[in-house]
């Protein structure tokens, strides 16, 4: 297995967060409720953002405290372990409210890295 540095993991977070936001662009909450493939794709993308956050070293997390590491990791854990109880409204909020500021912050941080 290949080891990745923190910048690579943060790029993964950025790429998958962007993809989730782009995939959901122009959609409404009821689109998410009706489209099982959209649900599965978005859940997976958000999971990957959280998994990549988990793989950033403790030093990397301390170096960039403006990134909500614990929230990203916690969301990933809730999606993976509570797979049978996913609240689509929370997923909607995550994609529409939480990911855009995360994307902006990752772009800022990676521009400095």
Which key terms come to mind for this protein?
113 residues, 6 helices, mainly alpha, single chain
What does this structure look like?
- It is a single chain.
- This protein has 113 residues and is mainly alpha-helical.
- The protein has one domain (6-106).
- The protein is built from 6 helices and no strands.
- The protein has helices at 6-24, 29-34, 36-55, 58-63, 69-81, 88-112.
- α1 (6-24) packs antiparallel against α3 (36-55) and α3 crosses α6 (88-112).
- The longest helix has 25 residues, at 88-112.
- The mean pLDDT is 93.
Computed over alpha carbons, the radius of gyration is 14 Å
Q: Classify the beta-strand content into a percent band.
A: under 5%
Order of helices and strands: HHHHHH
How does the overall form come out from the CA principal axes?
Answer: globular
Q: N- to C-terminal separation?
A: 24 Å
The portion of residues assigned to helices is: over 70%
The biggest sheet, with number of strands, parallel, antiparallel or mixed sense and barrel status, is: none
Poorly predicted residue ranges: none
Helix and strand composition category: mainly alpha
Q: What is this structure, in a nutshell?
A:
The protein has 6 helices and no strands. It is mainly α and 113 residues long.
